[in-house]
Fold:
Amino acid sequence: MACAKGDFHQLSVRPLPQGTLMVNSPHEAMHRIFQEYPGLFTGVSKVLGLPFIQPTSVTVLPTDLTEIQPVERRVDTLLRFDGAEPMLLAVEAQSAKDPNKPASWAYYLSFLYTKYKIPPVLLVVCQDRTTAEWAAQPVPIGPRWWAALTVHPLVAGPHNMPLITDPEEARADLALATLSAITHAKDPDVGGILKALSTALQDVPEAVADPIIEFTAQGLGANRRAGELWRNLVAVDLSFYKSYISEEIRDEGRVQGRVQGRAEDILLVLAARGLDVPDEIRERIIGCDDPDLLRLWLTRAVTAPSAEEIFMEEDV
Structure:
């Protein structure tokens, strides 16, 4: 129930029935008095020197914060570091801005500290600078004049992760070199990082190289150019590895190479016949990743009266 605007200083939110006000401990008195006299906080805020603005109404809410319906809240990765200064590390991968995330992160950190009694740290990993800069901003939770809780993540992204283009530097810390490649997946210079990493992997045991190859492929997967570069490098620089991971990546690289070659053949045939190839047709050919369809188009390119005719049946 909310009290009227003019009565905020004098009245309680809700007068309790006679005999129900049973304050039997200091603990109860210290908080229940605010239920009975919500205007009390105005005086307290003045004593504390807070710029509290008097509200127009106040409502007493249920105090039971137990979730009736289970709500799944799952951090991406959680690590515990023991030693002189024990800590928890919660790692979150973030691909785009999400206004709901800071509240979830606050919950994670509060829950972890309550459960483990160990200071938690939140690390957010991003692949683009805009998302990284957004994630790095401290998010105060509370009124503007007093942040009861501030979410302040550490952020690893293209703005602060090193561009590791020296094979020796990559070899010294393969995991960091892999993260460098992943966070810089959209960077025009990612090729230099990937070349350094593939070179560094040439003289390490297969058991060490395989997970690095896989993590790199997965991390670059959303970025087509970087992913193709890595598959080509694995196929050439790491051809001696025989594990299923490296074989799978090499197979993908070989298929992609054949697809790219066939697309170039189609354009070459059309150009040799003197046919005009508009930009949209060129992009459609180069962007196709279906080998069977490209083979059909190549056959048609030999006799088609125009470049558009190679798509004839697909456009019907």
Observations:
- The beta strands are 77-81, 87-93, 120-125, 139-141, 149-151, 154-156.
- Confidence is low (pLDDT under 50) at residues 1-19.
